[in-house]
């Protein structure tokens, strides 16, 4: 699991997904119920569900055996469980004991993609590139950098292939070293995710335990368009 100094709280809710990437289910209790735009929702004390955000898709999850979609409620800041379109939540009351569960293979895929994105950012920053955009969705994962004037090799196909090969080698070395992935809270409340001493960035996503958990990390030849370097990538979680 990703380690952190303390659990993250939003009011009475514990963001359990931040401290338990590999936690598949939790027994908890309902702390709030409500309705938004005609759709009922429920919030639990120990929230196992990562909502969509930060370039990462939402977890697939269940509450008392009923499939739900986690979203962050704009008014309360709570992560709430809503029913998929055409579905319905079970009848829940505040204080009721419930079991929350996630689809663990989906979670670990998302964690692998998000961690691999940090790794791609890290090897880009080693070249002096500055990240300007990111996406960690399956099939869409990419990191975009601002292209510095000094990168003269990016102007031709052969040069782009050479630079991509250098990025691949740097990423492979970090994975071979199995650098630990750690999360810490700053005094201002921000959560920083570290790839050992290689890289650190503010992040609210889920991550693998160490870079050795990454498998099938592939970086196609980078692209340059309108002054931006796009590094697409794929990754999976190694077999447990």
UniProtKB/TrEMBL annotation:
Matches recorded under SUPFAM superfamilies: ThrRS/AlaRS common domain, Translation proteins
Molecular function via GO: hydrolase activity
Coiled coil stretches, renumbered: none
Keyword annotations from UniProtKB, A to Z: Hydrolase
Gene3D superfamilies from the UniProt entry: 2.40.30.130, Threonyl-trna Synthetase, Chain A, domain 2
The keyword Cell membrane belongs to this UniProt entry's keyword annotation: no
Superkingdom of source: Bacteria
Cross-referenced PANTHER family: ALANYL-TRNA EDITING PROTEIN (PTHR43462), THREONYL AND ALANYL TRNA SYNTHETASE SECOND ADDITIONAL DOMAIN-CONTAINING PROTEIN (PTHR43462:SF2)
Protein name: Metal-dependent hydrolase
Originating organism: Streptomyces fildesensis
């Amino acid at each position: 699991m990703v380690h952190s100094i303390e659990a993250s709280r939003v009011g009475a809710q514990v963001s359990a997904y931040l401290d338990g990437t590999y936690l598949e289910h939790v027994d908890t209790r309902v702390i709030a119920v409500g309705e938004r735009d005609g759709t009922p929702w429920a919030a639990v004390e120990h929230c196992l569900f990562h909502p969509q955000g930060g370039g990462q898709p939402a977890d697939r999850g269940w509450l008392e055996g009923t499939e739900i979609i986690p979203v962050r409620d704009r008014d309360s800041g709570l992560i709430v469980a809503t029913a998929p379109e055409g579905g319905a939540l079970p009848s829940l009351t505040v204080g009721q004991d419930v079991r929350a569960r996630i689809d663990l293979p989906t979670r670990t895929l998302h964690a692998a993609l998000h961690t691999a994105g940090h790794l791609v950012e890290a090897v880009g920053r080693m070249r002096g590139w500055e990240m300007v955009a990111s996406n960690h969705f399956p099939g869409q994962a990419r990191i975009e950098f601002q292209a510095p004037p000094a990168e003269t090799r990016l102007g031709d196909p052969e040069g782009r292939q050479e630079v991509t090969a250098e990025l691949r080698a740097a990423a492979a070395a970090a994975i071979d070293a199995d650098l630990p992935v750690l999360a810490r809270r700053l005094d201002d409340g921000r959560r920083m995710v570290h790839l050992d001493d290689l890289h650190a960035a503010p992040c609210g996503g889920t991550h693998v335990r160490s870079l050795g958990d990454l498998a099938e990390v592939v970086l196609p030849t980078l692209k340059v368009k309108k002054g931006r370097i796009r590094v697409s990538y794929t990754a999976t979680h190694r077999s447990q």
